[in-house]
Amino acid sequence: MTAQTTDVLVIGSGFGGAIPAYHLAAGGARVTILERGPRMESEDFAQSTQLGTYNRIVDVIRGEGMTVVAGNCVGGGSVVYFAASLRAPTFAFERRGSIGRRLWPQRITRAGLDPWYDRVEESIPVARTGWSDVSYAGGVFAAACARAGRTCNPVPIAVDTQKCTNCNWMLSGCVFDAKRSMLTNYLPAAEAHGATVRPLHEVQIIRPSLQSGYRYAVTYTVLDPDNYTVPQGTGTIHAKVVVLAAGAVGTPVILQRSAVALGGMPKAVGRHFSGNGDRVSVAEVDEDKVRSLLDLSRPGGEAYAALHIGRPITAASYDRLRADDEEFTRFSLQQIYFPTITNVLAQAAGDGPGWYGVEKRRMRKNWRSWLTLLAMTEDDNEGTFGPVPLTGSFTRLAQGLGLGSLFFRATDRTRKGWRESDAELRAILEKDGLARVRPWTEDVAGAVTAHPLSSTRIGDDPATSALDDLHELRGHRGLFVTDGSSVPASLTVNPSLTIAALAERAIPGIVARATDSGVDVRYGAPAPDGSTSGREETAAQARRLAKRAAAGG
């Protein structure tokens, strides 16, 4: 049987996988994309929380002390995210964490990354929303901020607001193609240039290739589309370059499983995991005080009762993103909506666990009068991955549910950030009894994040980072990591735009390494929509990065 081969193998199809796949395919390389999840288009998505719908494309992975929510489909997290698209603040790139020295590579700064943010936004246009785009829930939060002497702003979103119907089903995939996921830009553009996407292909291990002219052999399992726990076959594909973008839960596990075959792994693989400092709280709002204190009411006469109406993220406060403040005290606060299936995590008052009982039952009856808020803080990168599961990135218990090997025990520094954000929310929302703030309980699922980062991070210090600043795995030429696992630390804002910008920045180095490996590929494709960059700074940085990579630096 003829061996399966490709020039570049991309593992994962979210932001970190789709972006390299497009540029390499457009540059002339043979590109194959392996994706663990199914392929679904807009007409396949269902606006439902019934089992068999959202849990086909979303995985909830329970670790010890931390639960991760992640996309599981062609397009990855971009299909299920809430599309809030912000550039990380300058101070985020200067963070020192608990190790007392800069976590990010010296060559990467906010100013240096701005041209790559620009490039991403050519392909994923970000709508600069106004107050007319803000949901009623976002308006209540904004009014509460103003009354408490804080500021609040509409959140920029990667959404075509002309197509968007404000249906609030973004977690289930966008049936209107209004959300600018990878399904609407980089992936179709990659396929137009010859890239092949293979859904339901779960990568198990990366080994050295014995095939002449190829560097890596990647073994995968083909999954049953109706039951991801059932294998339907296996295979191996040989590649000259591998780009690993299986997510901050998937990437480190694949590398850990491959360590013996590849002759060892950098010490930092599977360590320093960050949940982006995510901290979710529920504010139970007093309807009468929304009317009397905020002077708000809806056309139907209700003062609020509108948690579920509109897009899930529309307003945020950035008052505590102050560069001069002490580390672990900076955060953003964001109005957000979560499906009602998560309501068990809201804490009720009273004795015993706050996630069940009579008081919780009363509280849940009034869920339309809640505000749910997300704080994104500076955490301590304290997550580590333990023993590797037999197959896959975690032990799959059912469709959409898994048991992972992540161990997370929040340090005092992380909890300091959570306490600071809790106090700020209370100062805003509990003023004069407007609402009562209750952080999500950790009793049920531990801490919860939809923004997993840092488990295979870039950096300058080999002792604390797995990748160099070109995203190449230390000691493994031609093996790159370009997903959220490469981001060194929490960002205090939604990370999708930064992950995408870093992936764009990594392309020249990947192209140079592919060329060095005998691939006929060039860098310089326009944005997927066909427009040209026109940004001389981006082009100049691209040339410098390519030169460094070609020189082995």
Supply database-style keywords.
19 strands, 11 helices, single chain, 553 residues, alpha/beta, six-stranded mixed sheet, seven-stranded mixed sheet
Order of helices and strands: EHEEEHHHEHEEEEHEHEEHEEEEHEEEHH
Low-confidence stretches: 530-539
What is the residue-averaged pLDDT?
A: 93
Count of discrete alpha- or pi-helical segments spanning 4 or more residues? 11
What's the gyration radius in Å? 23 Å
Care to describe what's here?
The chain has eleven helices and 19 strands. The longest helix has 21 residues, at 496-516. It is globular. The strands form three sheets. Strands 1, 2, 6, 7, 8, 9 and 19 form a seven-stranded mixed beta sheet that branches. Strands 3, 4, 14, 15, 16 and 18 form a six-stranded mixed beta sheet that branches. The chain is of the alpha/beta class.
